[in-house]
Specification:
- This protein has a single domain, classed as Cytochrome P450 (Cytochrome p450, Orthogonal Bundle), CATH 1.10.630.10.
- Helices cover 50% and strands 10% of the residues.
- The chain has 18 helices and eleven strands.
- The strands form three sheets. The protein has a six-stranded mixed beta sheet with strand order 1-2-3-9-6-4. It has a three-stranded antiparallel beta sheet with strand order 5-11-10.
- The N and C termini lie far apart (53 Å).
- The mean pLDDT is 93.
Length: 409
């Protein structure tokens, strides 16, 4: 049992939704909260900025699911909706030397220099999508996600990995099911099987016809003496990069558009050049993080975080969206969207892209894509506005984003 005194656990909503009201209530009670995961699995969420920063840095916290007590004891069924997060072979479930080995094989593609070389292609894709966005507008209204916020990052990661265009819609559909937290066991198992099979097809094609892409490079490295990727690690790495490489970026772009449209004074600051577009991206990452609760880390011994004892083997969620609005770190106006905030010397840096050894490897690429996308979008359509009062959130408490975003150009 998680030792959290008399605080009743918070039951995470598998259907997702905006996390901020619940986050505020939980933060008012403390930086660490007991939670109930799907299937009545007990866990903990670390919500406070400083507590989360400390927790993400601890050497006595593991990512390997061998430390997940409920899974080890056979209490997690095969179709559990969060099982892929816990068990997919790759960087996000590896520790120590194994993590360093896997990360080093992929990190070469995400250096600042390599990412900067992608800039002209990202700008070209953005321009083409904006043309398509205007053509698709029906009476001036168009779904920004379908025609812009999704195809840009899925296109970029697809080209980076050497994935044929024909597979990209299917990969997004499957990715959506992988990150869903309300899917049934059969749906979860089927989506994972289909995703693994499709990525196996991609890997086989690149093995037969290598190209100047990351998948080919990973396969070549696997075939050399020295550091090696097993077939399972290769597929797990591709799955991670497909999901993380576009899901978070599309939500970042969409969340930024929503924030700027709802705060026209802030948008004017950026359009007038008083604040940079990169500042708008950073404030969106803090204020409306594209990831709410990221699974999982496991204490390898009983440990105390901000006065709360978390038993060994407990699955712990990183509460990025809550930490971004923690008043203890970001001040009494933490729930206010303010694009000038990133420039203040006293502004605490957000944790929305992680911290420590598992800091998001694709952060430079996501930041570049979002900055280019927002600048080009609002420069071309400065009067753009959200054309709906009610938006449907995606079915996940892991991700934080909407399914569709109707905008009026």
């Amino acid at each position: 049992m998680v030792n959290t005194s008399s605080v009743p656990p918070y039951r995470l909503n598998p259907a997702g939704g905006s996390p901020h009201a619940d986050n505020a209530r939980l933060l008012a009670r403390g930086a660490v909260a007991p939670v109930v995961l799907p299937g009545d699995v007990e866990g903990v969420a670390v919500l406070g900025h400083e507590a989360l920063k400390e927790f993400l840095s601890r050497a006595d916290v593991a990512k390997d699911a061998r430390h997940f007590a409920a899974l080890r004891d056979g209490r997690i069924p095969a179709g559990w909706p969060l099982l892929t997060f816990a068990t997919v072979p790759g960087m996000t479930t590896a520790d120590g030397a194994d993590h360093r080995r896997l990360r080093s094989l992929v990190s070469k593609a995400f250096t600042a220099r390599r990412v900067e070389l992608l800039r002209p292609r990202v700008e070209e894709m953005t321009a083409g999508l904006l043309d398509g966005l205007e053509r698709a507008a029906d009476g001036g209204v168009v779904d920004l996600i379908r025609h812009f916020a999704l195809p840009l990052p899925i296109g970029v990661i697809g080209e980076l990995l050497g994935i044929d265009d024909a597979y990209r819609d299917t990969l997004h559909r499957l990715s959506d099911r992988v990150v869903a937290t309300n899917a049934g066991p059969e749906e979860v198992s089927a989506a994972n099987r289909e995703m693994v099979a499709l990525l196996g097809t991609v890997a086989a094609a690149r093995a037969e016809r290598p190209g100047d892409d990351l998948t080919s490079a990973l396969i070549a490295t696997r075939d050399e003496d020295g550091d090696r990727l097993s077939q399972e690690e290769l597929i797990g790495t591709l799955l991670l990069m497909v999901v993380a490489g576009h899901e978070t970026t599309l939500s970042l772009i969409a969340n930024a558009v929503r924030a700027l449209c709802a705060h026209r004074d802030q948008l004017d600051l950026v359009l007038n050049g008083e604040v940079g577009w990169a500042d708008a991206v950073e404030e969106t990452l803090r204020w409306d993080a594209p990831v709410s609760f990221f699974p999982f880390r496991y204490p390898v011994r009983d440990l105390t975080v901000d006065g709360t004892v978390i038993p060994q083997g407990t699955p712990v969620l990183a509460g990025y969206s809550a930490a971004g609005r923690d008043p203890a770190a970001h001040g009494p106006d933490a729930d206010r969207f303010d694009v000038t905030r990133p420039r203040r010397s006293d502004a605490a840096r957000h944790l929305s892209l992680g911290h420590g050894a598992h800091f998001c490897l694709g952060a430079p690429l996501a930041r570049m894509e979002a900055t280019i996308a927002l600048e080009r979008l609002f420069t071309r359509f400065p009067g753009l506005e959200v054309a709906a009062t009610e938006l449907s959130y995606r079915s996940s408490f892991v991700g934080n984003g909407v399914r569709a975003l109707p905008v009026r150009l």
